[in-house]
Fold each of these.
Amino acid sequence: MDQISLAVNGRTDIGQVREENEDSIRWYASSDKPFAYIVVADGMGGYSGGATASKIAAETIQSHMDDLLKHTFISCTPEQQQLILRATLTEAINSANNALLNTKNLNPQFSKMGTTIVVAVMWYDFLIVAHIGDSRAYLWNNYGLQRLTRDHSVVQEMVDSGQMTQQQAKQSNVRNHITRALGVSSSVEAEINSWKLTENALLLVCSDGLTEYLDDHAIERVLATHRPALESVYRFIDDANKLGGRDNITAGILEYSSQPMPQMLAKEQNVTQRPRSPDVTIRKSQR
């Protein structure tokens, strides 16, 4: 079995224009197990409403993630663990939604608040991502950049239906209008996808304050060249601020690396290695 190393870093910034930071970020990497996660929420809803919404959502999901590594989970098979991860993410997001609705009921001044959410969790080489809204997750490795989420937004629906090009979407007056959010209705449906990583990789989780200014090519350039990789979060924030910083900006980086165990290397030294076919970098897990 390969030796897997996970490391995370994150940063959120108010930007150049806003008076309040309505983004929230939480991240964690276990010191003794190959487990890590990043949570990014981008709140909305008037004075202090957006900040409250993103904070409640991020903290609620963080609490569920922190409770995951119990004895029952560790003792399960890999297949069972993957199912538990998916169920835990679903439960965490539903709990966050209920917490927001309860807060709104108790505090009328928060009646219009809501938030996007994107959560990325790594367990060994298994990556699972859940999102609602237009906060995003990207994966980069030696094969390039791949966007792992699809925005729940008006312009994305128009692009999908052929009514608008990607370039037009970037300039649209409704580019920040989302079609799904946390804390808006009693039922919420997160989009959840999972992959098995097969190469060393960097995972970027971010709010739209970053992608407003940096397109996929700019994001890939930073992830491919900025080292140490975890410090690229500061570069992303700085670049977005230099380009205008009209929104709050949040970025989290998870660095995944896998190396053969030392004893395995010793055994393989006398074996002629066959050339490895360039399979796809990541592949969807069976559901």
Amino acid sequence: MRTVRPSRVEIVEVGPRDGYQSIVPFIPTARKISFLRRLVGTGLRRVEIGSFVSERAIPQLRDTAEVLAACRDIEGIVPQVLTPNEKYGRAAVNAGSKFVAFVLSVSEAHNRNNVRRHPRESVEEYRRLIAALPDGVDVRLNLATSFDCPFDGRVAEDEVIALLDDLVPIRPDAEICLCDTTGRAAPDHVDRLFARAMDRFPEVSRWALHAHDTYGLGLANVYAAWNRGVPVFDASFAGLGGCPFAPGATGNVATEDLVWMFRRMGVETGIDLDALVPVACDGAEIPGGLPGGRVRHALSAARTT
């Protein structure tokens, strides 16, 4: 398979969802909206602004509908919302969402812990949701635990491919994101799984990687996916994150770290790193947050010496 390494990549900012969801002290809605404005001001466009999900499960995101409504007044933003089932997917669309990210887990243990369903049941929920979507709604499909499960360990590549065999035909034009939920993937695994998936599903035009940096391999895994031809990457400003359903998982790779790496490689992101670093520094100070990443420290120190 011939690999074309993208000369420009899209970074999807997921901090306002993945970065916030494990924070216990409630972040005021106005502050969430302020961060969105500042993030978009750096050149970021697609932002996962929250999730339509049970308020009891993730109380931090109970204001997602209000945040989504505020996005109408933020020029340039493409608000993406996460949903784990048909019910909340419909709620997202009814609230005005034009970009829905449906998530299910390859691992049965994780999917049952997350949404109390077998993965095959989630496949059918995805099928029903897609059938019900009106025209004009973009779709991303997130496959959590594509590489590793917090309960069962390494996930077999064959399991991922088998699940995609059922999912891809439902919406072939959906963007498909393979997620390293625990951060335990390694670059060779990332390269091999994307190579298999791309070869088997040539009809999928947009692949993405959702990487965590729990074991310090987030950037290496992003590089492996880019080297295989993946053009879309999730990241979280200040490296904020952590999954309530994946014990020990820290945040996504930091957005500023990705921008720095790609800039040094000569790959366009459209993001102003000088504008992003102050936002990341403020994000790292959110009470209860778990920040990560290195670039904001290095650049901030360089500016003061």
Amino acid sequence: MVKSKDIQMRDPFIYVDRKKGRYYLYGSTDKDVWGKGTGFDVYTSSDLENWQGPIAAFRPDSDFYSEDNFWAPEVHEYKGYYYLFATFLVKATGKRGTAILKSDSLTGPFTPHSQNIVTPHDWFSLDGTLHIDDQGTPWMIFCQEWIQIGDGAICAVRLKDDLTEAEGEPITLFSASEAKWPTSFTKEEVNAHVNYVTDGPYIYKASNGELLMLWASFVKNVYAQGVSRSVSGLITGPWKHDADPLFTSDGGHGMLFHDLEGTLQLTLHAPNQTPEERPIFIKMEEKNGVLQKC
């Protein structure tokens, strides 16, 4: 068994198996996430503190189209199977994007399901997440990276019903600078832009039916977690941004889940420095769409 404080992980994601009374913890688990990718591991627990693992959930074969930057896996049940959305740096293009893998087990092995990445092949994209709208249509929400466009954006694209590829062109939901809380920065070795980061979108339907989006950026070079909300209640927005971030203690790329007792929990990684990053869990309350720590 291993404690949460001893698991080096970025971008944590929890799947709750209520039938078995188990939590499944996925994340960016390579020791050097900025370099060569070896795959993704999963840990299992009954209490969010003591974990069994790591269990190899995905290991690429020699023909896999990526060998670097294996990031931000998250697993969703859809039509009787488990689908893993994750970011990869594609060898053929030198650009990042989100691909979809599939398994009939939460512990894998997951194998490629989409033909390649499902984000645009000429974009730098990352952190795709699945959202099923009220009509049953699957969408992928993802980020177009600041290193390409300066002002990082969060986008949405419809997926085919079998999740093998995108259907139609992506739409931009908003740019990071539209929110009040993120701070801009410059990085001349990358581009000449004034830059804003968007990271790790996650969609959550509040108890009042409001559609919320968690996403991460930086406040004065410190990683932070913010919240936006769809004015229309649809994934296409328009989106209104909470003025203040939800978490400002050098952590982010979070998601929300109800634990086995029904308590709302936020998980994210903190701090944001490798190799110190760890998954942390914070009990939350949500009233009329407003999130706050317990």
Amino acid sequence: MTAPSTGTLRVHGATLHYDVRGQGPLLLLIPGGAGGAASFDGIADDLAAEYTVATYDPRGMSRSTLDDPEAEQRVAEHADDALRLLERLTPGEPARVFGVSSGAIVALHLLSAHPERVERVVAHEPPVVEVLPDAVEHRAFLAHVQETFRAEGLMPAMAVFAAGLRKDEAEAAAEPRREAESEIELPPQAAARREQTMANLPYFVGRIVPRFMSYTPDVQRLQTEALADRLVLAGGQDSRGELPYRPAAFLAERFGTDLVHFPGGHTGLTTHPAEFGALLRKVLCTA
């Protein structure tokens, strides 16, 4: 793996840590979940053969620190962080953007609020559940996650959260335990990355999940011809029917566009990096 150049950027209420590698048009990768820039380690080097690839830790995650650790998190502020990174790295020029999960929510807001700065957005499974016809059920689910987090702690809340996202609730409920048991099998770099992800989980569950999954994108603006032509909605080949997949499928149908299926499920970026990166390169080049 090629060592990236690193930098920091002061934004409102936080200091962002970002990495840059490669050369060519700028491609900003926005991580989701409890991951940071390192979640793109499996694809960033290959993409850097064609792009200047910028990755970063979102505010409050990993190396990007908050001035006030108790500050409420807002999608619009996270999108403004992404905008300021674009202005730092490619001032005045539109960029390509890829976002996954909660990072895809940020990418959607960035496109709708600042379309002049975005040439193309690929949004992989943004869990904008408020667009779904059964949104009220998902509000109750998210409230249950928060209640469990407050009353019982992180891992019980994660089990509830995983069960609500998956089709197979029994399988999902076992996932946090199985991942913890498998940690000793990981190579050093992957183990360090997982340790950092685990350290980010309380912030993710307590601050990101409730605010991001209650966010409603500007659907009318996104479906205008000027913006819809720049937006690629994507889902995992193996996550059909799961909660994070459904908003992307719903919006693609509403917009009359194809839903691009990437290899793997919601975490296909990690489980199928070579195939995932190859398809992303193809989608980014498609006019």
